[in-house]
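User: Last request for today: this protein with 5,6-dihydroxy-NADP, please.
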Amino acid sequence: MHNFQLSMPTRIIFGRGEVENAGAEAAKLAGKVMLVTGRTSTRKTGVLQRVMHSLEAAGVEVVLYDKIEPNPRTHTVDQGGRIAREAGCELIIGLGGGSPMDAAKAIATVAKSGHPSHEYITGNKTGRWRELLPIQEALPIMTIPTLAATGSEANNGGVLTHEATKEKGAFSGPALFPKVTIIDPELTYTVSPEYTADGAVDVFTHLYEAYLTGAEEARVQDHLTEGLIRAAVENGPIAVAEPENYEARAALMWASTLALIGIAGAGRGGSFPVHQMEHTLSAYYDISHGRGLAILTPAYFKRVAEDRPHRLARMGRHCFGVKATDDQLAAAETIERVIEWFRSMNVHLKMSDLGIARDSLLPMAEEAVRVGGRGQGFIPATRQLDVREVVAIYEESY
Ligand code: NZQ
Ligand code: ZN
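Assistant: Here's the final one, the structure of the complex with 5,6-dihydroxy-NADP:
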């Protein structure tokens, strides 16, 4: 196990009906807030009205910014940041999936600094992100997730797409930990079967990335990671089939928060190559993040089966019921079991199913390596994924 530091400062309020406390919690932090949400779902499901009502009943003044698209764009958060700054908002609340929560973090940053958000995302072609990261200052943030997937509700990162250059990159910093998150699993009842499955795959991927690429010896983290993967594997298909199954929704939601809050990966190191390869797909084609991860995972796992079969074998044995004692056989069987799990949630797909053009594979691979490689010319993984390797993974996933 490597040495590590871990900070988990976000206060977590979890459970059925807790969304009604949004106003009381916000009032402890601010008199005037910006409520950041997506363009459709929170209004349609009525959660937006519930949160607005709770805020107003607590005497909190609200500036609503309901313009966040899935895979949020820099220009959208820059506009939100300007409005929040001019209106004198003291707290930014992200209500929705990862997209509105990430956008809230970016708006909190831009509102404080006045810098455009593009300057904060990794890989940004201006090269200025190194000076500005990590983000030390931002307005206080609160999150209310409505979808179990990203873990953005309690971590200090976010992802933005800069449309002008098709870059999708991460930003992070100590100031971006939400002060408080209200996690009410009932808010996820209305998530479609497709997005429920995509979210479960995102949780799984957050867990397996460092587990497969990082330190061999991290025994507590192994058990934590495997337990959380099992929770996602068991409860994803239940939530897809029974959207109002509270315990399945609660398990998925809590697993998604814990997967990316730092504890599973602390002391492990490792990298996020499938995320790097996926972010370029969703930047170019605006596809769902979790769906893109499901598409790329089998081809990536084939490389892991060659490079570190014992790690994939261990995951298969502990999380997917694989029995083979030989690591090579167990690793191959794990890939089959993972595909079966994807199939059980109708998320075993190929890039061609989503209308991705074959001639974009090379430019996307070049972009993924540029952003994910940070000047090294490859994305670190169980092997160095250079442009040739990334194109090969894209081809096999097509
Ligand atoms: O469009 P809106 O109205 O927002 O509706 C959303 C959206 O269409 C809908 N939805 C959300 N909650 C719902 C609901 N529909 C019905 N009922 C509900 N309760 O679902 C669609 C997807 O929402 P989105 O927020 O885009 O999904 P997700 O949570 O998967 O977030 C994806 C974004 O997060 C980034 C991704 O790259 C992507 O940009 N990530 C953020 C991370 C982080 N901050 O730590 C880590 C992740 O690896 C990821 O990269
Ligand atoms: Zn993810």
